[in-house]
Amino acid sequence: LIFLLICCALVVSLTALLEVILAGRDCLVAGDSCSSDETCSPRLRTLRQCVAGNGSVKLGPGARSQCANAVSALLSSPLHGCQCKRGMKKEKNCLSIYWRLNLVESYPYETVHKDYDYVRLASITADSDVGMTTVNRCLDAAKACNVDDLCQKLRTEYVSACIKPTAKSGLCNRLKCNKALRRFFDRVPADYTHELLFCPCTDTACAERRRQTIVPSCSYESVEKPNCITQMRICKADYVCRSRLAQFQYDCEPSETSANGCMQGNYGACLLAYTGLLGSTITPNYVDNSTSSVAPWCSCLASGSRREDCDNFLGYFNDNICLRESHSINETPTISKCTVKYSFSSAPRTQTASSDGIDKQIVPLIYYMTVYSDLDLLSH
Predict the structure, then answer these.
(1) Of 29, 169, 171, 273, which is least surrounded by CB within 10 A?
(2) Residue 247 resides in a domain
(3) Is the confidence at residue 12, as pLDDT, over 50?
């Protein structure tokens, strides 16, 4: 008993120490520390001018040398090695500090260890499913979300934001929709969000429910598909989108030599990185009723000399063994509790009738009320 108490005390102490260490690596904390230091502060100001659009004008003819010296000096300051947490308060401010120092593509988010508990989700709706011969994992996931206060609240918020037309144009407000979508996937535990988004389907109705999870008529689709290179350029100009893309490319990097197809060997991290892209310029979604058929709403037509870059970008979604295998972990009907390490690192469609015959371009509100009526999602 004494030994166990000592072990517990040691674990608590190590956890507290880890939190202190991670807090010290927070770029906001490191930035404040640098700003209050008379040696570090002027170098940080120089770096800010370097990354600004007219930085070279302000710094004069020796701009290149000054910028290189500032970066070199800051690499030995508290800013070196700092990171941010996905979904944190002032995330954009934190990431702006990170990217000023890391002028090349890098990994901005801290790594966090959590349990992804499939069994707990199954138990939430087990009582109501007694005697049923069929299993609809997507419906079960929706029910599980609806009985969890946080999941139900934030899901209602983003669905409402995404289906509400603006008075001026009659279309949805995509900015508000995407903001609410990011809030849902950043704040609701992966136990719920992963089951909603990656639930396996064996019929068209189930697959369509899954495809509609992110309300794609507002958050995903537009009248025409823009070029993927253009979308990437817009994404990389935004600190949050750039960071989420960097996290996705790191955690979902494919590998033909890895046993599970992922360079990092972590399905949970890949799925979380994928959800981090939702609500961004390069939001991905299911393009049909296949579990592994996903892509952003963009095309590589007219990519010119950058066609290969464009194809490589799309290939991360539609030809990625790591992402494909990560999706497939939810296909197994009975999965015991497994621990995964994941990382916190960043308009109307064309006329297409759904499986139930409803044209979602013409009557999106009626469609979504029908989809969610069994959950009483819009009645709260």
Answers:
(1) 169
(2) yes
(3) no
Of 87, 297, 268, nearest to 194 by C-alpha is: 268
Which residues span the domain enclosing 346?
113-379
Number of domains in the chain: 2
Residues 120 and 73 in one domain: no
Alpha helices in the chain (DSSP H): 2-24, 27-35, 40-51, 55-59, 63-74, 91-101, 118-124, 137-146, 149-163, 174-187, 190-198, 204-211, 216-219, 228-236, 239-251, 267-276, 307-318, 321-328, 364-372
Q: Between β-strands 338-344 and 284-286, what pairing exists: parallel, antiparallel or unpaired? A: unpaired
The Cα 278–Cα 196 span in angstroms is 13
**Mind listing the pLDDT tens digit for each residue in 258-306?**
888 999 989 999 999 999 999 999 999 998 877 778 999 999 998 999 9
Residue 318 to residue 22: CA distance in whole angstroms: 35
Write down which residue in 48, 74, 104 finishes a domain: 104
Q: Is residue 271 domain-shared with residue 336, that is, in the same domain?
A: yes
Q: Report helix, strand or coil for 183.
A: helix
Has residue 12 been placed in a domain? no
360 class by beta-carbon count within 10 Å (0-12 exposed, 13-18 middle, 19+ buried): buried
